Amino acid sequence: MKQNKFSTLIVTVQNKPGVLYRISGLIRKRRFNIASLTVSATEDPDMSRFTIVVEGDKETVEKMAKQLYRIIEVIKVNEPEEDSIVARELGLIKVSTTKTGSKGEISLIADHFRAKVIQVTPEYMMLEITGNEEKIQGFYKNMKKYGVMEFVRTGRTALFK
Amino acid sequence: MKLTGAEILCESLLKEGVEVIFGYPGGAIMPVYDALTRYPKLRHILVRHEQGAIHAAEGYARSTGKPAVCLVTSGPGATNVVTGLADAILDSVPVVAISGQVHSHLIGGDAFQETDVVGITAMVTKHNYLIMKASEIAVSVKEAFHISGTGRPGPVVIDITKDAQFEKIEFNYPEKINLPGYNPTVKGNMHQIERAAEFINQSSKPYIFAGHGVLISHAEKELLELSEKAAIPVGTTLHGISCIKRDHPNYIGWLGMHGNLAPNKCVNKADVVIALGMRFDDRVTGRLNDYLPHATIIHVDIDPAELGKNVKVSVPIVGDVKEVLKSLLPLIKESKGRKEWFDMFKDYDKVEYEKVIRPEIYPRKGPLKMSEIVKKLSDITHGKSRIVADVGQHQMIACRYYEYKKHDSFVTSGGLGTMGFALPASIGVKVAKPNDEVWTIVGDGSFQMTMQEMATIAQENLDIKIMLLNNNFLGMVRQWQQLFFDKNYSSVSLKNPDFMKLSEGFGIPSEKVTERKDIEGAIKRARKHKGPYLIEFVVEKEQNIFPMIPQGASVDEIRIE
Asked: What are the start-end ranges of the H helices in B312-392?
């Protein structure tokens, strides 16, 4: 079995106070190792959606799904196969532009990755990129040589195809 | 007519069939206490500490099978029930704990006696609520009772702000509940049940592990039918004790760390294990790597999260034990008996009887043994008393030497191992079953954790018999220090109060037994006395409980000395 395998859980919950606390508490209590967790509203105002990326194999994910179902507000836990979903995350990156000629190079790479320039100052450029984890990681690697001042990413959110 | 939130709470409890509340008043719950005087149908039992309230509620719930109520104030009142909530969630006990909370506009400001009750209790409850409007009280009570009492039972907390208790609105009790995320599976999957039947029918050494779920689902009859029809030995977990009569030939004993020799020794020889309403706790399994190497495991539990949690299961069946057994039974072939398999148990039984049991229950000389006292109680009460045991050596003795002949008659703290549980829990048991004989078996250490509840027993004049087994030690810890820490006794010796004077101070008659010849007479005097009675038995100081599976050892490495 491959080390550091990650799986995605899509959890539909009733939009009530305290659900995030219960879910994060469960993850801590049962010692699941998560890579990311995003929460958002859905098309139904009474429901919210958690997208949780957890480290572990199928068995771990199944155990986590069963534990999640013990939370009263949890309506549905999906454990989708990677090819059955479209998953995206958002990255924001602040790259130093003090080196001569770097602005142009960064813009070229950004174009290639379809990243958007959102702020330009004499010291840095801020860029926005969406895509899957590999794409964002790839972009980040390309930016490293210019000097990454700050880099944040949201964690994945997903929809079924 | 408009009612206050406090009155709505009382009305809602009545709608849920509540008759008794175990509680303790305080500032943030005063409107409810004020209302209670107008609801004489809600009997309130005033405990002496909130931990006592929740353990009493646990005892009540376990004796009635219905959610029991405890009522406390905010802050320390609520934090004092946390131990009981943790106890109830591990032992699947339906309790609805209602706490007062500070005024809603004060929440978050560190007000006097404010604690974040939903935050603190979230990890030890099945569900919890913070109520800040009177309009939310009725629906929360209805949901709380449903959640607490169905599926795998468990504790639910309702935290109600003081302003919500004062607020006046029209009272309407909801007809329906809307919990789209909560729908426990009761009937088992038929395909899995058929697979289970096939495995059972083909097995030569099947083995039933009967847990608390058998009692919770009232599946005693179905369990017996399965065991008798297919000739399957039945071992029970700690909480499964009393789901089958002690003298039934198919009952082969108690599983786990201080259980019987035969059931533990034979576990790993089984080819099919039928685990009913139990959770493969580490005290039952011993070292997991060596556990059940040859067995196909059929696991029935109403909580899907238990299936596959600790051991790999071949046939997982989510459902109520009784319902699943009802579907399974017609598919089971009648067996002509499995003499060889049963004989294997009998051989070990003989060893345990000669090496452990006989010397324990029939000692000729030396100090009193806890085992002989409990065995005597068992004989005198014909195994038909309700027994409430605390936590420690005396608890293991209560499991081993009381010969349970009445279904669901044993209450103890299993999962959490809460010292101080028994005395308050026995209050709940007696209030639930006033016509049944109730004995609480406590050690000198555990008794002193909640002995203030003697005052509650005296005030309510509850006919509870207290068997205090005093060895002037924290006996179980001492035993472990002897066996695993080179007899380095660290903080286990107790200089105890004079229990006779203490009992007298509470107004409860008592006597002290130091001689073997007085055991029987004392128990008989206690039974004859109408009302509470305490007997202190001064017992052997360094008695050890055997058999024992040392922690981390395999089940078949069980020791008898």
From this structure: 321-328, 339-352, 358-361, 370-380
Residues of B with CB under 8 A from a CB of A: 118-119, 122-123, 126-128, 130, 147, 179-182, 303-305, 307-309
Cβ partners under 8 Å of residue B3, min gap 6: B11, B168, B169, B170, B171
Beta-strand ranges (E) seen in B163-229 are 168-170, 206-210
Q: Touching check for A59 and chain B: CB below 8 Å? A: yes
Q: Tell me, yes or no, if the two domains A6-79 and A86-160 fold the same way.
A: yes
Break chain A into its structural domains and give their ranges. Answer: 6-79, 86-160
Digit-coded pLDDT (tens) for B6-59: 999 999 999 999 999 999 999 999 999 999 999 999 999 999 999 999 999 999
Query: Is 0.90 surpassed by the pTM of this model?
Result: yes
Active site residue B113: yes
| Structure-token pair, residue B252 | 């082969």
Q: What phi and psi values does residue B280 have, to the nearest 5 degrees? A: 50, 50
Helices and strands per DSSP (H, E), number in chain B? 24, 20
For chain B, domains (ranges, CATH) are 2-170 (3.40.50.970), 190-345 (3.40.50.1220), 368-538 (3.40.50.970)
Name the more confident of B414 and A82. Answer: B414
In CATH terms, the superfamily for domain A6-79 is ACT domain (3.30.70.260)
Question: If you average pLDDT over every residue of chain B, what do you get?
Answer: 97
Min Cα–Cα distance to chain A from B104, Å: 15
**Cα distances (Å, whole numbers) of residue B367 to A33, B157, B443, B521:** 54, 47, 16, 17
**B476 annotated active-site:** yes
Which fold, A86-160? Alpha-Beta Plaits (3.30.70)
CA distance B213 to chain A (A): 17
pLDDT digits (tens, 9 = 90+) for B247-294: 999 999 999 999 999 999 999 999 999 999 999 999 999 999 999 999
